Amino acid sequence: MIEHEVVVVGGGPTGHVLAAELALAGVDVGVLERRGGTQLESARARGLQARTIEVLDQRGIADRFLAEGERAQIVAFAGRRLDLTGFPTRHPYGLALTQDRIEAILGAWVEELPVALHRRREVTGFAQDVDGVTVDLADGERVRARYLVGCDGARSLVRKTAGIAFEGWDASTSMLQAEVEMTGEPVLGVQHDEHGTYAIGPLGDGRFGVVVREPDPTRGGQPTLEDLRAELVAVFGTDFGLRRADWVSRFTDASLQAAAYRDRRVLLAGDAAHIHSPIGGQGLGTGVQDAVNLGWKLAEVVHGTAPDALLDTYEAERRPVGARVLRTTMALTALQRVDDRMDALREKVVDLLDAEESRTRLAAELSGLDVRYDLGGDHPLVGRRMPDLDLVTEGGEPTRVFALLHDARPLLLDLGGGLDGAPRPERARVVAARAEGPWELPVVGEVLGPGAVLVRPDGHVAWVA
Fold first, then answer.
1. Could you count the other beta carbons within 10 Å of the beta carbon of residue 142?
2. CA 293 → CA 290, 347, 422, distances in Å?
3. Distance CA 265, CA 147 (A)
4. In terms of DSSP bridges, do strands 196-204 and 207-214 run parallel, antiparallel, or are they unpaired?
């Protein structure tokens, strides 16, 4: 029998990041992945939002992604681009980078860490007891762990086996997405008419990316080349000489969330906990932030430095964030519908976005920069992401906040006094430094810098002097 302190089911972005967080915290973690590697049959997600880039920067690996992607203003609402330029972050932009490359980079990082990667291992079930979880694999082997985390996607076997309901709204629209070869000259760009929103874009080497709506949102099964051909003809009157497809997939605007993120020793993260339309590019980043929120908490419980009840704060903090993402993507999907009433509503929404405050609030939400956990206290920093301030240490060395978070430990910053009575987590790094420049938060603006601050491993402020 294979044994680990924590087993993560699913080796996608959420599972990779969670495994890395646990390994950095000294937890014996194993990943069960049914694929043989990080290769994907399709590009899937196509970018990273600003807060996700910050999370990667907190671990010292953002440059790996920035080197391969294209920095761009990718945040939009109702077709209106929302510019992050001027936001108080070192990354006031999104990153255009496909999920297959994101997973490959994350996979290379995880392989540098003490993570046991069990590839071509398919989970068929599990059973909990008071001491842990026993996982059954398709090859007949078993895996034993103290905790099990399902990062196994929208059809999560872990969620279903745990008996956790997936609640919300069924699909109202269905889209086909594909990478294809065409012998003709397709109409390029995004179109918006009575057929909905659809698009064709060049990928190079005579290949094109296609997104087109299906009339029946309840269709299931694997879509075919002929399904795609039929929808192209319905929209354009021609298939542009569609010859072959590297892949064809279907996505809908179904908006579902797990009724609970935890059942005793089993937890859920990423798409296993919440799914929604991909519009707005929220899914991958929400899963990554689930992982960094859960990772340090699970490590503290495994090490015995925090009670099991700490794991309940994972759901308390992340489930409201997931619920907000579902509501936002539902709104974005509704605004894509085409009729006179929705056209009128869309015009009014765009008018409202002429106001800078409206643009700023929405841009902060969609980029993930405005998340605040309810940790009590009146100081505007508490619960929010810690700004990546320039610092000068007591020894005169220049550094910055995110550089002090690379090892995923709590950070207690002494910025000129106020450590008396400060909470001191067992693994906390204590650094005396002075901050250079103003303390500024997205939407909130400038705030008074405290004399001391405790930063959680996920980069959120837990306490200020």
1. 13
2. 5, 38, 22
3. 5
4. antiparallel
